[in-house]
Amino acid sequence: MASSDLPGGGIGNRGMALLLVVSMIAMLSVVIIRFSQSMQLAVTETFLFQQSVLMESMAQSGLDIGLAVLQQDARRSEYDAFPENWARLGEDPLNVGIGQGAVSVLIIDLDGRFPVNSLVEMVAEGNNPPPGDIGITSQQARDILLRLLQSGLFAVEDETEAREIVESLTDWIDADDDELDYGAEAGYYNSLENPVVPRNGPVDFINELLQVKGISQDLLYGNSEKEPLIEYISVENKSGKININTAPLALIQALDERITADQIEGLDEFRRDEDNIEALTDSSWFTDFLPGDIDGPGLRRILSSQSSHFIIDSEARYQERYMALQAIVERSSENEMRLVFLEVE
Fold first, then answer.
1. Residue 65: CB partners within 8 Å, gap ≥ 6?
2. Fewest 10 Å CB contacts: which of 1, 66, 160, 191?
3. Where would I find the H helices in 138-279?
4. So what's the pLDDT on residue 1?
């Protein structure tokens, strides 16, 4: 018997109604699931945003602390050395009062490093030493950098390669187009597959050095076997002087070929001892560790006990999240802080 023959044909209508209800329930279920997923995504995005804001605030707080410590240091003393608070700031993480959160701040003195722009004298008004303060000469700077590159610490094969780096960097900075014996000027850089224009002036950013003939990634940033040259040189220092209180030991030894490793070790112990803090106010203390045949006055002319340029590394950690800020700052003679460079990791 056909369903249409049943009284009222009710079975067929009820089946269609049931099918319609099931379909609507299925559609509503999909909508509810999608809505739930959207809500979960929105909650997750909100949480991540809050975490990002928190991490940024923590890292910025570390930077602010670094700036405040440097300003306080300038008010308390007219020298910069390892026994001071700014140099010890990175020994322990700072408690920021946020549960599992912690901030680490490290301050590094850039004026204790080799001043790259001193390879050429008077390349710009801002590169001149203070009046009456001679500072390092271009020839002294080239000799010091040459010895530093030949120390065995860096990815440099031999003296010829070291000389090529020194003279190419000098040509990169100087204003003329006269190529030194081992150097490179516009003619060389124009012949490259990807030509570049030499600076012909002071270098502003350290990464720029990768464009200079002879300077490789391994040399500038180091590798598993060699140290990074970037930790021994600076482009910010325009005074033509090196802070002997914070200079890397290899750079100190490169100041004169007669300075020995034993002398450097004793020197480093002396400048890190809090009991010697008063002696560190004047860079002349350094000459007490030198043999009598080394020109003390000549070295004192290029040394300093004060610094104006620093790196502030601020690292924030909260649970599994991490954020780092690296800032290069300049501290003026009026104790004002200027942000030169900022990088977020």
1. 89, 94, 103, 105, 314
2. 1
3. 138-149, 159-173, 186-190, 217-221, 249-254, 261-272
4. 47
Q: How far apart, in whole angstroms, are the C-alpha atoms of residue 134 and residue 101?
A: 48
| Distant-in-sequence, close-in-space partners of 291: CB < 8 Å, separation ≥ 6 | 258, 263
What pLDDT sits at residue 19?
A: 67
Answer yes or no: pTM beyond 0.90.
no
Q: What is the rounded CA–CA span in Å between residue 49 and residue 54?
A: 8
pLDDT in the model for residue 92 = 73
Supply the pLDDT for residue 263: 87
Show the 3-state SS of 79-146: CCCCCCHHHHHHHCCEECCCCCEEEEEEEEECCCCEEHHHHCCCCCHHHCCCCCCCCCCHHHHHHHHH
Q: How far is CA 44 from the centre of its chain?
A: 33
Low-confidence ranges of the chain (pLDDT < 70): 1-15, 17-23, 25-26, 28-51, 93-100, 122-134, 292-293, 295-297
Over the Cα atoms of the chain, what is R_g? Answer: 32
Spell 277-288 as b/e; 16+ CB within 10 A means b: bebbeebebbbe
Task: Tell me the DSSP string of 15-55.
Answer: HHHHHHHHHHHHHHHHHHHHHHHHHHHHHHHHHHHHHHHHH
DSSP element (H, E) containing 310: strand 309-318
The size of the chain, in residues, is: 345
Ordered structural domains, the chain, with CATH: 47-108+310-344 (3.30.1300.30), 117-302 (1.10.40.60)
Q: Looking at residue 124, what is its pLDDT?
A: 40
Cα–Cα distance measured from residue 77 to residue 86, given in angstroms and rounded to the nearest whole number: 12
Contact (Cβ atoms closer than 8 angstroms) between residue 135 and residue 129: yes
Distances (CA, A) of 2 to 8, 11, 12: 12, 11, 11
CA pair distance 151, 173, nearest whole angstrom: 24
